[in-house]
Amino acid sequence: MEEVYRHACEVIPGGVSSPVRAFGSVGGTPVFLSAARGPHVVDINGREYVDLVCSWGPALLGHAHPEVVAAVQEAATRGLSFGAPTTAEVELADLIRGRIPFAEKVRFVSTGTEATMTAIRVARGATGRDVIVKFAGCYHGHSDALLAAAGSGVATAGLPGSAGVTQAAARDTIVVEYNDAEALKAVFAERGSEIACVITEAAPANMGVVPPDPGFNATIRRLTLEHGALMILDEVLTGFRVGPAGWWGNEASLGEAPVTPDLVTYGKVVGGGLPLAALAGPSELMDLLAPVGPVYQAGTLSGNPLATAAGIATLRLAHNAVYAHVDRASRQVQDALAAALDEVGLPHRIQTAGNLFSCFFGEEAATHGVRNYDQAKAADGFRYAPFFHAMLDAGVALPPSVFEAWFLSAAHDDAALNRIAEALPAAARAAAS
Ligand code: PLP
Questions:
Q1: For position 254, which CATH number holds?
Q2: Pathway, per Swiss-Prot/TrEMBL (predicted)?
Q3: Range of 176's domain?
Q4: Under 8 Å CB-to-CB from 168, ≥6 apart: which residues?
Q5: 140 C-alpha to center of ligand 1: Å?
Q6: How far, in Å, CA of 89 to CA of 310, rounded?
Q7: What is the pTM of this model?
Q8: How far is the CA of 342 from the centre of ligand 1 (A)?
Q9: ipTM of this model?
Q10: Which of 28, 31, 75, 268 is the most buried (most CB within 10 A)?
Q11: What is the pLDDT of residues 342-384, one digit of tens each?
């Protein structure tokens, strides 16, 4: 593995195509994978791991679900890319609309980054305003405007933002502490007439899992409406993963009225493991996009036939039983994790957003919970590296950063869950030492 990594570093910056994969915050040599099936990934030496990364979310059904693979294979026999409209795009848009009634129109792009970037452009086009508001620790991809105080890999690397982002782009982004309704009110009181939109992760899972306080999303909705700004709900991670209608749909089951945003973004699960993402919303806003309206967006591979085939097959298979299974599997792993950490007396807090969860270590997190990015950073994140490596040694692949969620899938069966449970006690001891 070391030799492959050394060569990779000679030809690819950091040896990776996306920073967190480099194991920067957990140390050691990244594991190069050659295959993924069901609940497992397989490294280039043929070693199999139970996978709790699930490609960072897309593999809701497990890796390489036979029906998804068959759909992609069948699509491939008809051509890899047309650069022209297809009926499959229309079918996928209809499937999304069937689950998300306010998503009257859908535009397909290739990555979550493009989806949020385009949603921001629509918001600016709709309002004629420049300023956007995001929350510290929320990650919305790597477009310039959204890199300030971002979670995910930016958090893992400990960066306040990114070099190469112009001061003008940074100036137009106001960053507010997550779950701080008063701070958001103050920003609107001061600059409400300049604000084009507030973008928020539906339930943040890129600073670890930090769910919205009850009513927080509703406060964003109310303030944006009052001030003529748009609300963009980023469901790239949560969409079609935490429930059939994403976090938006789940809020109803939490006893809250779901907060309906102006625009919503999807990625990951909606592409079934291939590069596909989307933004959606009411026709009035979506028709601002070219060719109907003046807001430009395009993509050579947008709506790619293989990706749409994977998305259609995935959404068709992602029925209620899938979500019930993933929820159950997630709770089982959480329970085993809590028991292992309790056994060694390590204070911790497991936080959830539907079937997504992550674990914060330390007395403060255990006692008070984690409600924002500062608190997430203040937790005992140093305990994660030994924990992660003990799990890896035992054949369980966790996300290589304490700031990422753990992902289960419909393919995590009893055998996979047992392997995780068996690995946890030694990992808990490593974290506690
Ligand atoms: N939005 C959220 C909430 C995400 O979690 C991510 C990626 O992790 C993105 C946007 C960006 O998506 P992509 O990596 O496909 O560009």
A1: 3.40.640.10
A2: Porphyrin-containing compound metabolism; protoporphyrin-IX biosynthesis; 5-aminolevulinate from L-glutamyl-tRNA(Glu): step 2/2
A3: 66-317
A4: none
A5: 5
A6: 11
A7: 0.97
A8: 33
A9: 0.99
A10: 268
A11: 999 999 999 999 999 999 999 999 999 999 999 999 999 999 9
